[in-house]
Amino acid sequence: MKKAGITIENVHLAFGDTEVLKGVNLDIQPGEFFAFLGPSGSGKSTLLRAIAGFGPTPKGRILIGDRDVVGLDPWKRNVGMVFQSYALWPHMSVRDNVAFGLKERKVPSAQIKTKVDAALELVDLAHLADRMPNQLSGGQQQRIALARTVVVEPDVLLLDEPLSNLDASLRVHMRRELLRLQRQLGLTTIFVTHDQEEANTTCDRMAVLDGGVIQQVGSPLELYDRPENLFVANFLGTANILEGKVEVDGNERRFVTNTGDQLSLPEGSTGEGGNIVLRPQNISISRTQAADSLPGTVQHSEFLGSQIRYLVSAGGTEIVVDQSHRAGHDWIETGADVHLVANTQSAVVL
Amino acid sequence: MSQNTSPPAATRAGLADRLPRWLVPNLTGVHLVAVFIALLLIGLLLVPVAQVMIVAFQDPATGAATLQNFVDFFRTSLFRESFWNSFYVSAMSVVVATVIALPLAYITTRFHFSGSILIQSLGFIPLIMPPFVGAVAMQLIFGRNGTVNLLLRDWFGFDIPFMEGLNGVILVQSIHYFPFILINLSASLRNIDRSMEEAAQNLGSHGLRLFRRIVFPLAMPGYIAGAALVFIKVFDDLGTPLLLNVNNMLAPQAFLRISSIGISDPMGYVISVILVVFSVLSLWASFLFMRGKDYATVQKGGGGMAKRTLKPAEKALAYATVIFILLLVLSPHIGLLLLSFGTIWSFAPLPDGYTFQNYVTMWEGSKTFIMNTVLYAGIAATLDVIIGTAIAYIVLRTQIFGRKGLDYLATAALAVPGVVLGIGYLRTFHAIDVPFTDKPMASWWVIIALALMIRRLPYALRACTAALQQVSHALEEAAESLGATKRRSIQKIVIPLMTGGILAGFVTSFATAAVELSATIMLVSSNNDAPLAYGIYLFMQTPSGRGAGAALGIVAVIVVAIGTIASQIIIERDKKLKSSGDAH
């Protein structure tokens, strides 16, 4: 299968007077598994649908390979899309659903049979070819929808929240399945989701969207460790954000919180903003004072199995601290006065 | 949750306590009401229809069971012809109604079209006029010497036999009944999730192919439901063919045999059996087709089909189509209005002059008709909502054995054509005298009201059921837990909350019963007992009476229109009231 990259240049899109995409620029590499991640209303689905040719015509350019598809009818784009609802046609059997796109492309019927069988084989559902869609489970419907889309060998594959209608255990299984398929077919794939775990576990790179604007693009690790703004920091995982300012004293840089507590920053750290982002697992909790520690009081604690999560009031806010749990370790009781030591190597100042 | 509030122990003490429980069933008022309604439905629906069935299979001389009547029926060429004509007219009416409804349904559901409000009124304008009322007016517009053909002949030198024989019945019926297809088809088109269509576009499909392969198959269940309804209605209709003087169809034949030869002639019964069988068959066929095909695919957050804006040329075409259909649909109304105000209208595109005289003549000649109509339709509609409410309550809120049966029995009236019910009543009640007199019940006016009641009950029952479903059971339970008895809580809580729905059911039942012809025409024994619909039929028999008949027709249209609008307003107001109650 040929691989096509996608280039999105300065795309604006409005529903009537409501602007939903406000100047989106993005480069997706051929063969890449890319995710659009964002809360509902962020514009991620709208952007995906614009690539497929649904919804109002956007301003700007959307290149698939080197063809600008803006204004092109959806049926002329050769873009495969899997819908959130799967959109399997209830009046057609599984086989007819999968064969639909091939028939539209006037593929000879002998080839249609071979290709449909291969596609059903690919998703392990060859034995269900003669069922009707309403006789299938959610996960099976999902895989048929996928087979129906990839059988036409699209240039790119678009997945609109494909896992949101599945129950939790099936979701984990299906996302591995999706990744396996994507790697096997080598299709440029865009995966829309509001679930960061789904995006983290599947995609090569992702774009975080909010308010119709791309907030940051990068690999899951980059986005988690080096968020460029507070939205990304908060949206990906749990973030403790302390307000204050950076003070420079010769070679030493330290972050002074609004409550006057000091956290020394590592050498070579940059960032001059008024917030410091600390991940819960990068803070340790202790009953004894140490250098650069924040005094606080345990407000609440939760046993989560592999770790214990403490909610500690310190530094003028409530700080989430995760401590990995081992048998025999003590559990600090609510109300106890503690000291928090932050590993500022991994902290980000924004 | 117990439905039967146990009577105070004191009343049960004594003999009853010593008998086994099954001998003293815990009967309550609700049980008695259920039994009473069951007896009423059996007496007024089941027995008359069964009578018709039995007579059809009986040798008229000996009373022995036989198939001879059916053999005779199919040996008579007139009956064979009537059978095929009825079938042909019904099928063609479905086709023509589809041709009218399909573009309208498509335009409203697929495009942003400012004329949609026109189309919505199109959907209900025909239904406010019984088809037979418009039939004569249609003759004057589309007949051989009607407006359209006179103009065609003058301008182009040819004419079109719109109203010749069966064509006339097909035209009148399809114009009248196409809304059933329009409403059902539009609803199922709207219920298709847009992703169904987008998925097909995504895979390379568009235009007519997309419509044929995805959209229409998904809308099929709605279409079939509408088409089956049109088929039955046309197959059973008596008034339209009678007024157009097309007698070689089944329903008119049944009527003519019974009215001219008498109630002992078996042919009327044979035809009745055929009518019932076809009704049941088409209802059953549409049920079979619909089973397992609930294609309503709208997802949460999804919003029906994607609507497209029309290009200027397309918009012009859409408006032209809609206006053409609107004119066609309004032609019986326009024709009737012209006829009612016209002096003489014959061999001319329009009446020669205009006058109010027809209304004066109509008023003088039909005061009785109007009074009778108000009386009959009033009784029928009142009984309908009382029985409808009772059945709805029994089905939804009690555990009484066989409660579903009541619902089915009342609904079964849908499958019984008016002619058949009329014949059944004649046969069943001619031997029974009105209490305290020696007149047979069959010629008693009360029987007409009861026939109307049975005919309208299925619709009233649906309205009452819907109304009751909106009243949360908890409201009733709250009243009971505060000490209200079952009866009090129904009186004080349930009925008042159902009022809107019940009232809407009453108004619709009243309005449609007021213009019902097929059952009443069989049962009217003297002009003094005749209702309005029969009056129109009488007027229209003579050319000189047509003007006054049209004026009476206008009265009928106004009655039904007011009824329809009123019930809409009541339903809307009720909805608003309920939703504002939910708001906090």
From TrEMBL, chain A:
Q: Which Pfam families match?
A: ABC_tran, TOBE_2
Keywords (alphabetical) are: ATP-binding, Nucleotide-binding, Transport
Which part of the chain is the ABC transporter domain?
6-236
What the entry lists under SMART domains is as follows: AAA (SM00382)
Q: By its UniProt entry, which InterPro entries does this protein fall under?
A: AAA+_ATPase, ABC_SmlMolc_Importer, ABC_transporter-like_ATP-bd, ABC_transporter-like_CS, Mo/tungstate-bd_C_term_dom, P-loop_NTPase, Transp-assoc_OB_typ2
Per the record, the domain of life is: Bacteria
SUPFAM superfamilies associated with the record: MOP-like, P-loop containing nucleoside triphosphate hydrolases
Q: Which PANTHER family match?
A: SPERMIDINE/PUTRESCINE IMPORT ATP-BINDING PROTEIN POTA, SPERMIDINE_PUTRESCINE IMPORT ATP-BINDING PROTEIN POTA
Name this polypeptide is given: ABC transporter ATP-binding protein
Automatic annotation (TrEMBL), chain B:
What are the ABC transmembrane type-1 domain coordinates in residue numbering?
A: 83-282, 370-567
Q: Where in the cell is it found?
A: Cell inner membrane; Cell membrane
Task: List the SUPFAM superfamilies hit by this protein, alphabetically.
Answer: MetI-like
Where's it mainly located? membrane
* Pfam families associated with the record: BPD_transp_1
Reading the lineage from the top rank, the first entry is Bacteria
Q: Enumerate the Gene3D superfamilies for this protein.
A: MetI-like
**Membrane-spanning intervals of the chain:** 30-57, 87-107, 119-142, 162-185, 214-235, 269-290, 317-348, 368-396, 408-429, 441-458, 493-515, 548-571
Q: Name the membrane topology term.
A: Multi-pass membrane protein
UniProt keyword list: Cell inner membrane, Cell membrane, Membrane, Transmembrane, Transmembrane helix, Transport
Q: Please tell me whether the keyword Disulfide bond is annotated for this protein.
A: no
Database matches in InterPro entries: MetI-like (IPR000515), MetI-like_sf (IPR035906)
What protein family does this chain belong to? Answer: Belongs to the binding-protein-dependent transport system permease family.
Q: Which PANTHER family match?
A: FE(3+)-TRANSPORT SYSTEM PERMEASE PROTEIN FBPB 2, INNER MEMBRANE ABC TRANSPORTER PERMEASE PROTEIN YDCV
The protein's name in its UniProt record: ABC transporter permease
